[in-house]
Design goal:
The complex is a heterotrimer of chains A (288), B (238) and C (347). Chain A is mainly alpha-helical and 288 residues long. Chain A contains twelve helices and two strands. Chain A has a two-stranded antiparallel sheet. The radius of gyration of chain C is 22 Å and the shape is globular. The chains are: A mainly alpha (288), B alpha/beta (238), C mainly alpha (347).
Chain lengths: 288, 238, 347
């Protein structure tokens, strides 16, 4: 019985971390059809922002939940104004440019922080379920992911800006024709997406040893989760994260973490081949 | 069966709850020229996309010269000797006119014959002066003419054209009419069209689509004077 | 393409010969060898992306597969001739399978990017985790993240003890690049190559004209993988070790950057882009002030923003413009006139 509880928690954790990793990319891709391949580096910078702030004496939760998202959001804003702004509507070019940005940020962070592993300890202690030791921090990540989804859903469904956002997602040209400045929507979206990436990087930072190339570990997972999810922002994120998270954890338990990772990737390839429009493009057309 | 170019039986296409084409039975003799008309959303373009393989019909069968082609991919249908022109111009923009037509000719001929055929088509369509220009720089009328050349280069026995006259000037249409007559001496044609003037000048038999079904199929003059047709189609336009 | 294939072949042979003679006077042959290999790798992506319109985010997968196929079979066989062929065939066969799966599923550009990227990652993670002694193919232990060292390097075919190394190896690589370049030229001149360019321009139109786009793209993809595999085997011989980093995303990114900077839709562009950027990286590697990745990344961003066509097309455009202006002052008018007349008559 204890084992089942542990497996359940691990599954939930697997799904939650995928949601967290992918949220920033999903917002940017869903809203303004930009695939930000520097997303992993945005997360990495969120991690560094947290560690720097903690070392300066800031409370760790403030650093993770406030400072990192704002800092990375601002970086995203600069990137949007300088680079992305010129490339809207050219999907492949934005992918290439953001890939270049990802290398650029890796280099920049290496020059500033050095090519060494840094990290902070997890602020929440672990505890035992029966005979099994459970990482208490996993619950925090599940909590953050769940609240993130709830906030995103209520913003999209319940506020005026959410309505504009949903409109823009479906018909950017109509939103523009109705008088909503696409330039400002793009800017705001990219800021929010970057801030979410920063948040994800910050929250996950205590679990990993951070190096300037850490972003590479996230981008592929985020990328496939978002693409496989399809056009609906939240439903897509949730469904593909659940699927991949479950596959990953099952194989991790049954065989090994490496096989878990590989199984996730194989599942993604198979899924895209079978459902080229993504999960929500096939089953839940037209929901946010 | 050799004198029948194209037949469909009960061709049906559903999009969710909408029935875009509803049990269409259609028959085209060899060397016949047929225009498909109907108001927007009547199902003629859906019908066109189903027989060209661009969409797979939900139900029903398509036969070309007696061979069942239901659900075939467009390239297999084209390989039978069927020339297809879609509604929006579909050409290789950064290649020259000559290269475009050569690619079409090469599919059905060896190297030497492809070069000869390319020349022949360029002369037939009077494209000589612009043969080395990139297609992307040409005017709309010229691009439409080149696309007709792509269709003709494979020596097809069945030609399917979706709105060939759309957006053309009067002079271009006149030229297009001549080319279509020329092609009709060797091939059966189906033309989806809106331009009544153009239809009157080329067609004898016209099939009228309405709400996914064939409403009427008759000589162009009788169709145009038919009160029901005028009501659903011409009446709205006037 | 004006001119004949024979003339092209002679030009390529001459240029290769002159470069092979001159360049070693400036740069050491050890460095030159890897520039040549990268040039070939870039050409493989330049062919399928620039002419075939297939954007592959995982060209490094075929590079790595070629290198590993060579290393593993060389250890088992003990000499290099058959392994060189395997290094070409294995990636080509893998690409044919992968390509068939993708193209017959009618996947769009972005999905192609995702899948090729993911497949590269799968290979990377799998190979990376094969450190234990139980992971071996024949006598070759895969070695996980440590890679496979100590395999027999290139020898004269038929003489397993006559190794080709140093300057000699550079000449072999340069000659092979010249040969591959010539084969690519011939391919692009052939009907298959021209049809491939047609497919890049407009898939729907080409399929409406009766071409089986899926099959042709699959073949094109496999040809690109074969070239990348050859480059991988040559790299393995140069480095005398193969490691999973050959499969890394960073490697894939670099190949894409070479093509973008050099210029898509040309044969020369990717080769020059690879050699130039790899040499720049080599120079940057000798100093510690500015990080390598920062410069590479910045170069890619700047090119996408300001020179998306790449250096070679931009230069040749400039050259043609100057040349045409100088030789034929009335050229532009001569070409415009007939079209102007036609339009007035029609209107």
């Amino acid at each position: 019985m204890d084992l089942y509880a542990v497996v359940l928690v691990e599954m939930l954790y697997g799904v939650a971390s995928l949601v967290l990793i992918s949220a920033g990319l999903a917002v940017v891709f869903g809203m303004i059809k930009v695939i930000n391949l520097a997303h992993g580096e945005f997360m990495m910078m969120g991690g560094y922002a947290t560690i720097t702030a903690v070392n300066l004496g800031v409370n760790v939760f403030v650093a993770m939940l406030v400072i990192a998202p704002v800092a990375v959001g601002l970086i995203g804003l600069v990137v949007e104004r300088l680079v992305i702004r010129h490339l809207y509507g050219r999907l492949v070019d934005t992918m290439l440019a953001t890939w270049g940005l990802s290398l650029f940020f890796i280099g920049l962070v290496t020059m500033v922080f050095g090519n060494t592993t840094t990290g902070i300890s997890t602020p929440i202690p672990g505890f035992a379920i029966g005979d099994y030791q459970v990482n208490g921090y996993n619950f925090f990540i599940i909590l953050v992911s769940a609240s993130l989804l709830v906030v995103m859903l209520s913003v999209l469904k319940g506020t005026r800006s959410g309505l504009i956002a949903r409109g823009t997602m479906q018909r950017p040209d109509m939103a523009a024709a109705l008088g909503y400045n696409p330039d400002r929507i793009n800017m705001a979206t990219f800021f929010c997406g970057s801030a979410l990436s920063g948040l994800a990087g910050a929250v996950l930072a205590p679990l990993v040893g951070l190096v300037p190339t850490s972003g590479g570990a996230y981008i592929a997972k985020a990328f496939i989760t978002v693409i496989a999810g399809g056009p609906s922002l939240i439903a897509g994120l949730l469904s593909s994260a659940s699927l991949f998270g479950a596959v990953n954890q099952i194989f991790t338990f049954a065989i090994s973490p490496v096989v878990g990772e590989v199984a996730l990737l194989v599942a993604a390839v198979v899924l895209l081949r079978v459902l080229p429009k993504g999960v929500t493009g096939t089953f839940f057309k037209g929901r946010p | 069966m050799d004198d029948v170019a194209l037949e469909t039986y009960g061709l049906t296409m559903r999009f969710g709850g909408v029935i875009a084409a509803n049990r269409v039975d259609f028959r085209l003799r060899a060397l016949e020229l047929r225009c498909l008309i109907g108001p927007n959303g009547a199902g003629k373009s859906t019908f066109f996309r189903c027989i060209t393989g661009l969409q797979r019909p939900t139900e029903g069968e398509v036969y070309m010269r007696g061979i069942e082609t239901t659900g075939w991919m467009p390239h297999r249908i084209a390989s039978l000797g069927v020339g297809i022109k879609t509604q929006t111009p579909n050409v290789m923009d950064s290649l020259s006119v000559h290269e475009n037509i050569w690619l079409a000719a090469r599919r059905f001929h060896d190297l030497r014959e492809a070069d000869r055929k390319t020349q022949e088509i360029i002369e037939l369509l009077a494209l000589g002066e612009i043969a080395r220009d990139d297609l992307g720089r040409l005017a709309h009328g010229e691009r439409q003419r080149v696309e007709l050349g792509l269709v003709a280069a494979g020596d097809p026995w069945l030609i399917l054209l979706d709105e060939p006259a759309a957006g053309l000037s009067a002079g271009d249409i006149e030229r297009m009419t001549g080319t279509i007559r020329e092609l009709n001496s060797r091939a059966a044609l189906i033309i989806v069209e809106h331009d009544m003037q153009f239809i009157r000048s080329i067609a004898e038999t016209v099939t009228v689509f309405h709400q996914g079904k064939v409403l009427m199929e008759d000589h162009v003059d009788r169709v145009m004077s038919d009160p029901v047709v005028r009501n659903v189609y011409l009446g709205k336009k006037a | 393409m004006p001119g004949s294939l024979t003339r092209d072949a002679i030009t390529i042979a001459l240029v290769t010969g002159v470069l092979v003679w001159v360049l070693p006077l400036i740069i050491g042959t050890y460095t030159l060898t890897v520039l040549v290999i990268y040039g070939m790798l870039a050409l493989s992506l330049g062919l399928i992306w620039g002419f075939g319109g297939i954007l592959c985010f995982g060209q490094a997968a075929f590079f790595g597969l070629g290198a590993y196929a060579y290393a593993i079979s060389a250890i088992n066989i003990g000499e290099s001739t058959l392994p060189m062929f395997l290094a070409v065939l294995v990636p080509a066969a893998f690409a044919a399978l992968l390509g068939a799966m993708m193209f017959y599923g009618r996947l769009g550009d972005v999905y192609l990017g995702v899948i090729t990227l993911v497949v590269t990652l799968i290979l990377f993670k799998t190979v990376n985790s094969t450190a234990g002694p139980q992971y071996a193919i024949g006598n070759a232990r895969l070695g996980g993240f440590n890679g496979i060292p100590g395999f027999p390097t290139l020898n004269v075919p038929g003489l397993p003890d006559a190794y080709i190394w140093g300057d000699g190896y550079f000449y072999v690589c340069a000659a092979l690049l010249g040969l591959v370049y010539m084969l690519v030229t011939a391919l692009l001149r052939s009907s298959f190559g021209r049809v491939a360019v047609g497919i890049r321009e407009n898939e729907t139109r080409m399929s409406l004209m009766g071409y089986d786009v899926r099959a042709r793209k699959t073949v094109m993809f496999a040809i690109g993988a074969a070239i990348a595999g050859l480059a991988g085997a040559l790299f393995a011989n140069w480095a005398e070790i193969v490691t999973p980093s050959l499969f890394s995303l960073g490697q894939s990114a670099e190949i894409i950057i070479w093509c973008i900077v050099g210029g898509l839709g040309t044969r020369l562009g990717p080769v020059l882009g690879a050699a130039g950027l790899a040499y720049l990286k080599f120079l940057l590697g000798q100093q510690a002030l500015i990080d390598n990745a920062l410069v590479t990344g910045l170069v890619l961003v700047l090119f996408v923003l300001f020179l998306p066509k790449g250096i070679v097309p931009a230069l040749s455009g400039l050259w043609n413009f100057g040349f045409v202006r100088w030789r034929l002052p009335g050229h532009i008018h001569q070409r415009r006139r007939p079209r102007g007349r036609e339009r007035t008559r029609n209107g």
